[in-house]
Amino acid sequence: GYNYKWFSEEYSTVSVEEEFHLPIINPATGKPSRTFTQAGKKDGIVEYNPTGKRYLLEHKTCSEDITDPNATYWRRLTIDSQVSCYVLANWQEGVKLDGTLYDVIRKPAIRPKKLSKGERQQVVAVGTYFGTKMSMATREYLQANESENGELFEARLFSNTLDEPERYFQRRIIPRMDSDVLEYAHDCWETANAIRDARHSGHFFRNTGACVMYGTACEFLGICSGHDSFDTDKWKQRPRQHEELERIDSTKKDVLTFSSMQCFKTCRRKYKFRYEDGYEQVREDKDAKYFGTVMHLALKAYWNQLRPTETINDTGTGISSSSEASKSSTSETAITS
What is the rounded CA–CA span in Å between residue 261 and residue 204? Predict the structure, then answer.
């Protein structure tokens, strides 16, 4: 569905999941912190081919309405401090981008459903469901079960994304004002100083207002309330402080990321447990995290195919772009679908 919606867009990929490791600068003096550095990973940098303008690519998944450009979701993104972090990193690297391309995907609200006897008989007899050919295993499954299995649900969801692409996929270019980036630079500097002071004093105070957020209890609530202990087999220590960073040594505790600084601002005790002490719960990934991981891998593969590498064309008389070839290929696939 994503490819069907966007295959004709004229973007090429400059970089995907590029990591950065930079000093934290005091905006007032221009001097770097002697204690901390900042690191992170940008979803990507893309170029709009007709104009040559370059944008920070930021993938988002959400459960909210994204069709209305004035919706609360889009208003919130105009002040998204995470993007300010990445834009600031580009500034420090000597590149000033033309804005941020928010690539938003709405999570499906539909769920597997029960099928009527007639619907089941139709799939078994014809062998297709919402235009998609079903395996013999699924056709046999329907002879004894009423609900959609994974293959059936996938076919219906795929059809739904083609019928309602605007509901699931939206992109907006949102500029980042210089004042917003400078404000984040001050915020980053002050947060780093606050973490340093908390280390020196040894006091990471709790924010009890963050014990339950969005209906979910903090993973350390049992520790703070005395109902759990790090000595149990429910806890382990991470070998790396920032597992999302693959090429940067994050075994040291003086590397800060946007996520770790946000955690500190939310609850200093939680920051201490997670990033200073390195504790995490031993548990299986939740569905939401699994969904995010799968989408992450899919989007990485999609944008990697749009890299403009130079190749000799079929006639051998000129140069063609592989990104254009990829677009042509994906377009044909989408139209066929």
Answer: 13
Residue 94's region, left for phi above 0, alpha for psi from -120 to 50, else beta, is: left
Backbone angles phi and psi of 222, in degrees to 5? -65, -35
pLDDT digits (tens, 9 = 90+) for 45-90: 999 999 999 999 999 998 999 999 888 899 888 888 899 999 999 9
* Structure-token pair, residue 51: 């104009």
User: Which of these, 57, 47, 143, lies nearest to 100 by C-alpha position?
Assistant: 57
Residue type, 22: L
3-state SS assignment for residue 12: strand
pLDDT exceeds 50 at position 243? yes
The residues facing 320 across adjacent strands are 311
Burial per residue of 268-301, b for 16 or more beta-carbon CB atoms within 10 angstroms, e otherwise? bbbbbbbbbeebeeeeeeeeeeeeeeebeeebee
Rounded Cα gap, residues 53 and 49, in angstroms: 7
Torsion of CA 175, 17, 308, 101, to 10 degrees: -20
How far is Cα 35 from Cα 32, in angstroms, rounded to an integer? 9
Contact 12, 308 (CB under 8 A): yes
Model confidence at 123, in pLDDT bands (50, 70, 90)?
A: very high
- Retrieve residue 279's tokens: 């504790």
Question: In angstroms, rounded to a whole number, what is the distance separating the alpha carbons of residues 218 and 89?
Answer: 30
For residue 129, the surrounding DSSP H or E stretch is: strand 128-129
Length of the chain: 337
Q: How many CB atoms are closer than 10 A to CB 326?
A: 20
DSSP 273: I
Q: Report residue 317 CA to chain centroid gap.
A: 41
- Name the token pair of 176: 């980042």
- Tokens 């020196």, residue located: 200
Confirm if 7 and 327 have CB atoms less than 8 A apart: yes
Q: How many CB atoms lie within 10 A of CB 105?
A: 20
Taking only the tens place, the pLDDT of each residue in 205-237 is 999 999 999 888 999 999 999 999 999 989 998
Q: By C-alpha distance, which of 136, 137, 149, 143 is closest to 120?
A: 143
